[in-house]
Design a protein that fits this description.
This protein is of the alpha+beta class. Helices cover 49% and strands 11% of the residues.
């Protein structure tokens, strides 16, 4: 297998890892020397380092017993260990790093489309790379003493990265694992990649054959949820729509131009709300926008997506809000207290989705609520109201009346807030 030195050198590339990740790497290197073992950093982290992007995960392959190596690594790092014997893989939980995946180099054979593969271990590194999904993930760097700093790229993954091209490793890739249809959209959206012609042809053949039906909803939804948390989700959703995959995934009919515009605004909306632009908040916004479209059965969609009970409840609440936005967002004058009351209880994902469909004035109100109004508290405590004679639920109601007063009248004194808190609720 061809091996080339990492340009310009291994140290420079691997030094792009975060300090906690580099500490893990040093432990891996030392363990690989006793006894000698061929260990490689593989797949996603190598791809990300070559693209000068942060490597979010650490994935290692061992030409030998991966789980045994993982057990030694867990002991050295005082981390947790979870082993999956069937696949020859293990996960080491490391504080400050997260999950470190360790696998035996293996070959795979899929007995039928969508089935879990039959795994053969051990195998040489090249066989392990040739079983992967796309060439940009079929990359490895030697991190043991014997092969430190050698880049393995048997399928031209670097060339495809430079050309911004997504190419499958073999012709049956999408039929073997239909989740790769979703992953293709995710990689294309995240990295701005175009499908290589043969890959696009195989993808469309797999879609036409309905191969997504051959995998469980759980497997499919786990991959989809990862996609919706990542940067590039709007473009990925546009591709899924173009390929005719939104409906099989429970996301409704193909997207219209209005839908594209709204979805593309989600990162800006989250940034305006000072919220993370990727992660669960982003997913909540995308799902709410998709399921709130006219003609989409939101309840069925939320169920098909496999959302948790809480997430399903919040999604359906968001759908109601998006289909009929709060009137306070359209009013010429909007009192802060009313804005607070109308928006209270809505998560940042719902607010971001709202942000994408309203005008500039309403956007400023959403930003003001999330960044300022929801943090306003009265200059009183429950103890103050208890000393004044209120009990139980009366205290909570009194504090709320004082809070409303302060929202509309920031200059209100503590005495004025106390008087309002003690007033009969019907008179406020």
């Amino acid at each position: 297998m061809p091996a080339t030195k990492i340009p310009p050198n291994a140290e420079e590339l691997l030094n792009r890892l975060q300090p906690p990740q580099r500490r893990v790497l040093e432990v891996v290197r030392k363990l690989a020397a006793r006894p000698p073992a061929r260990v490689y950093l593989v797949g996603g982290p190598v791809r990300d380092l070559l693209m000068d992007q942060p490597a979010h995960d650490l994935d290692f392959v061992v030409e030998g017993d991966g789980p045994a190596f993982a057990a030694r690594l867990a002991r050295q790092l005082q981390g947790s260990l979870q082993v999956f014997e069937r696949f020859g893989t293990a996960v080491v939980g490391v504080r400050g790093v997260g999950h470190v995946d360790v696998a035996s180099a293996r070959s795979e054979e899929y007995p039928e489309p969508g089935a879990l593969p039959n795994v053969a271990v051990p195998a040489p590194l090249e066989q392990d790379l040739r079983r992967r999904d796309f060439t940009i993930n079929a990359l490895a760097i030697g991190v043991g003493p014997q092969e430190w700093g050698r880049l393995y790229d048997p399928l031209g993954g670097q060339r495809d990265l430079r050309a911004r091209r997504l190419r499958i490793v073999h012709a049956r890739s999408f039929r073997d694992d239909p989740n790769r249809l979703i992953r293709a959209a995710g990689f294309a959206g995240r990295f701005g990649l175009a499908l290589e012609p043969r890959t696009e042809r195989r993808l469309r053949e797999a879609v036409a054959a309905g191969v997504l039906r051959t995998i469980s909803a759980d497997r499919r939804n786990e991959t989809l949820r990862r996609l919706l948390r990542q940067p590039g989700a709007p473009l990925a959703l546009a591709l899924l729509s173009e390929w005719g995959l939104l409906e099989p995934l429970g996301l409704g009919r193909p997207l219209k131009s209005t839908d594209h515009r709204r979805l593309s605004r989600v990162p800006a909306a989250l940034a305006a709300l000072a919220a993370p632009t990727e992660g669960p908040e982003a997913m909540a916004a995308y799902v709410a926008l998709l399921l709130s479209r006219r003609g989409v059965d939101a309840e069925t969609g939320a169920q098909e997506l496999g959302l948790s009970r809480r997430a399903r409840r919040e999604t359906l609440q968001a759908v109601v809000v998006l289909r009929q936005p709060p009137a306070v967002l359209r009013e010429t004058q909007a009192r802060p207290a009313r804005l607070f009351v109308e928006l209270r209880g809505l998560g940042v994902g719902t607010l971001a989705a709202l942000w994408t469909i309203v005008d500039a004035t309403a956007r400023r109100r959403l930003e003001d609520y999330w960044q300022r109004l929801r943090h306003v508290q009265p200059d009183l405590t429950g103890e103050d109201l208890a000393r004044a004679g209120l009990r139980g639920a009366e205290i909570a109601a009194g504090l709320e009346r004082a809070r409303v007063l302060k929202l509309d009248h920031p200059e209100a004194t503590q005495e004025a807030q106390l008087a309002t808190a003690l007033a009969d609720q019907k008179s406020t």
